[in-house]
């Protein structure tokens, strides 16, 4: 979005004045309202849509992101990895960036994909339950995000949507299957080896450890599966827009063009241990020195914590809403 | 402060999968617009796919198509008729310029002897170098040096207020800023609303008593800025090039800034409810907000915004 010099200076002066004033009356650390819904794509293993700053009256506007995860079975021998793989991709809808050429759109998509992929699928965050049969089969988790419209602060929206979709992801329960030769071994009569389903069922993990397991089947169970492991550890990101000496959150497009320098910080808040800084990105032009960055990380953590707890309570609320909805539907039947 | 809200609940359309009418109405559904009274009875709203009239008696215009000898609306809007031509003027559309309209635009490109201006129309508007006021007197001829320093007048991204002067053969509009009230914009911020919400008024320059000037562009671009006194605007000898093409803002105090953002939020709220904007409505809304003593951003909360709209509607 191009701005005139007068608009730019109007926004910058407003941000730096005392008290700081923004075009829509927010304070520096105010977010626009965020609407979130999980379970929006019935065919995905987990999905969420999120919109920042929509008109509360159902009008248009706002940064809208749709995120969905899909699990596929992979052979470890071929391209898969033992314990599962995760792949992330971000697609920008051309309607979100109507003034970008297809080439520029590809570049933008690529940038976003890289940032998300490198942050979310860092080994430290790898979900533990993506393996099916050790050394043979595993799940490939693909996380796809689509940006449907962009009115500023798209990175925070992407990370929040990704977190919500991963939170919502259910991994189907599997049970290992093995071929059992008859006790008598080769001397046995011509009777062929019979396929046998492992009778033990009390622990899915125990059956997985069987080294002889060659294949698996899906356990028939009432829900869609178990939660993706380590789901409380998925990070949230916070973008600090810098107008030296201060910073603000959730920039609208004019503010974004008036203050192009940004720092993106991704934090994860695992239940068991300390807060972890998962990623730092400096976006836009301009430079930062170490003391500045230290200070920004400290304040960024505070904001991220707020965002994290707000998002968590919203996600739990969504879980309750959906189980209630499912129950109602079941009762109606 | 971070707040999460729910998505607005989707309405259940499953009950409306087939069009149903009340038994009494069923016969009137195919009411023909043949007689003139139907057209004269004020604006008729259509939905896409709605039957308008027979194609044997009428000609189809913009926003309609013919199927099985019936003229059918292809957009949602108001039906208009000129003699035998039936058109539908869509509710949501880009700006359709008319000569003499006041518009607010943004420079997108500097070309030889002309600027391209985004004015929310289907094509970029054109502002010729010969239709702006050049520094050093209004009635000066343009020189070659002016052509070489066009960016000192307007550069990419600059906002300006102008009037539609004429049309080119391809339908693009030509603008002019040959008035002291027109020219570059500063000291404020822009709000964009659907063009249909800005009606033709006696004056599109509105001054609110809270020290805020408004320029309601007919193209839906609204400029909200600090109030400038009439006498300052003119300058001593009628035209002050320095001030007219300046990129620097004046000092704007906190109260004015708050008023500007409050007005811009009110405009966004009103446009979200699709109410037409006039100076009177804005003034009313501003007074209401001051009376309620709410913060600027609180307007975006559902209940407060709804209360404002209800009070505006009640006034009529």
UniProtKB/TrEMBL annotation, chain A:
Transmembrane in keyword set? no
Major subcellular location class: cytoplasm
Q: Where is this region: Disordered?
A: 177-203
Entry-linked InterPro entries = ExoRNase_PH_dom1 (IPR001247), ExoRNase_PH_dom2_sf (IPR036345), Exosome_comp_Rrp42_subfam (IPR050590), PNPase/RNase_PH_dom_sf (IPR027408), Ribosomal_Su5_D2-typ_SF (IPR020568)
Please state where this protein is localized.
Cytoplasm; Nucleus, Nucleolus
Exoribonuclease phosphorolytic domain location: 30-172
Task: Name the UniProt key words of this record, in alphabetical order.
Answer: Cytoplasm, Exosome
> What SUPFAM superfamilies is this protein classified in?
Ribonuclease PH domain 2-like, Ribosomal protein S5 domain 2-like
Identify its protein family. Answer: Belongs to the RNase PH family.
Protein's name in the database: Ribosomal RNA-processing protein 42
The scientific name of the source species is: Hohenbuehelia grisea
UniProtKB/TrEMBL annotation, chain B:
- Domain named Exosome complex component N-terminal: residues: 46-82
* Domain K Homology positions: 188-228
Write out the annotated subcellular location: Nucleus
Q: Which UniProt keywords apply?
A: Exosome, RNA-binding
- The residue ranges crossing the membrane are none
Q: Where is this region: Disordered?
A: 1-21
**Family according to the record:** Belongs to the RRP4 family.
Q: What is this protein called?
A: Ribosomal RNA-processing protein 4
Organism in which the protein naturally occurs: Hohenbuehelia grisea
């Amino acid at each position: 979005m191009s701005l005139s010099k007068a608009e730019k200076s109007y926004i910058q002066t407003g941000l730096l004045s005392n008290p700081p004033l923004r075009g829509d009356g927010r304070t520096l650390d105010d977010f626009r309202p965020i609407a979130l819904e999980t379970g929006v794509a019935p065919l995905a293993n987990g999905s969420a849509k999120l919109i920042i700053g929509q008109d509360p009256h159902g009008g248009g506007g706002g940064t809208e992101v749709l995120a969905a995860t899909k699990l596929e079975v992979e052979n470890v021998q071929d391209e898969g990895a033992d314990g599962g793989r995760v792949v992330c991709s971000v697609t920008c809808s051309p309607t979100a960036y109507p003034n970008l050429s297809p080439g520029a759109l590809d570049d933008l998509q690529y940038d976003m994909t890289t940032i998300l992929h490198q942050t979310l699928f860092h080994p430290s965050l790898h979900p533990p339950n993506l393996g099916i049969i050790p050394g043979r089969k595993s799940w490939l988790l693909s996380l796809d995000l689509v940006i449907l419209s962009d009115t500023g602060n798209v990175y925070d929206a992407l990370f929040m949507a990704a977190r919500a979709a991963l939170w919502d992801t259910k991994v189907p329960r599997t049970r290992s299957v093995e071929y059992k030769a008859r006790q008598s071994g080769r001397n046995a009569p011509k009777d062929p080896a019979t396929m046998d389903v492992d009778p033990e069922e009390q622990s899915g993990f125990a059956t997985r450890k069987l080294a002889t397991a060659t294949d698996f089947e899906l356990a028939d169970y009432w829900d869609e599966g178990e939660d993706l492991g380590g789901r409380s550890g998925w990070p949230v990101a916070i973008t600090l827009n810098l107008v030296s000496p201060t910073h603000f959150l959730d920039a609208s497009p004019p503010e974004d063009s008036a203050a192009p320098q940004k720092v993106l910080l991704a934090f994860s808040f695992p239940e068991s241990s300390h807060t972890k800084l998962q990623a730092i990105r400096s976006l836009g032009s301009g430079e930062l020195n170490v003391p500045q960055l230290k200070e920004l990380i400290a304040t960024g953590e505070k904001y991220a914590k707020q965002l994290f707890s707000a998002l968590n309570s919203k996600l739990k609320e969504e879980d309750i809403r959906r189980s209630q909805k499912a129950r109602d539907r079941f009762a109606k039947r | 402060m971070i707040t999460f809200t729910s998505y607005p609940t989707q309405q259940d359309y499953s009950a409306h999968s087939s069009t149903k009418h009340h038994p009494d109405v069923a016969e009137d559904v195919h009411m023909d617009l043949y007689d003139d009274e139907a057209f004269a009875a004020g604006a008729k709203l259509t939905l896409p796919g709605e039957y308008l009239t027979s194609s044997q008696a009428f000609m189809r215009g913009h926003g309609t198509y013919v199927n099985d000898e019936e003229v059918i609306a292809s957009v949602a809007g108001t039906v208009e008729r000129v003699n035998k031509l039936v058109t539908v003027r869509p509710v949501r559309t880009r700006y359709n310029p008319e000569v003499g309209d006041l518009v607010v635009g943004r420079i997108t490109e500097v070309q030889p002897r002309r600027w391209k201006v985004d004015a929310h129309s289907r094509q970029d508007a054109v502002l010729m170098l010969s239709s702006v006021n050049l520094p050093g007197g209004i009635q000066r001829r343009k020189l070659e040096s002016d052509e070489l320093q066009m960016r000192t007048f307007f550069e990419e991204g600059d906002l300006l207020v102008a009037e539609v002067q004429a049309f080119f053969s391809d339908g693009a509009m030509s603008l002019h800023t040959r008035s002291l009230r027109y020219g570059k914009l500063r000291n404020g911020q822009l709000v964009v609303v659907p063009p249909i919400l800005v009606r033709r008024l006696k004056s599109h320059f509105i001054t609110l008593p809270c020290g805020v000037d408004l320029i309601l562009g007919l193209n839906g671009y609204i400029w909200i800025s600090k109030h400038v006194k009439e006498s300052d605007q003119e300058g001593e000898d009628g035209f002050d090039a320095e001030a007219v093409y300046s990129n620097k803002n004046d000092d704007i105090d906190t109260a004015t800034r708050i008023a500007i953002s409050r007005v811009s939020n009110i405009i966004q709220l009103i446009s979200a409810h699709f109410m037409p904007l006039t100076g009177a409505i804005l003034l009313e809304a501003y007074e209401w907000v001051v009376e309620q003593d709410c913060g600027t951003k609180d307007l975006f909360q559902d209940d407060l915004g709804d209360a404002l709209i209800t009070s505006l509607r009640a006034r009529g």
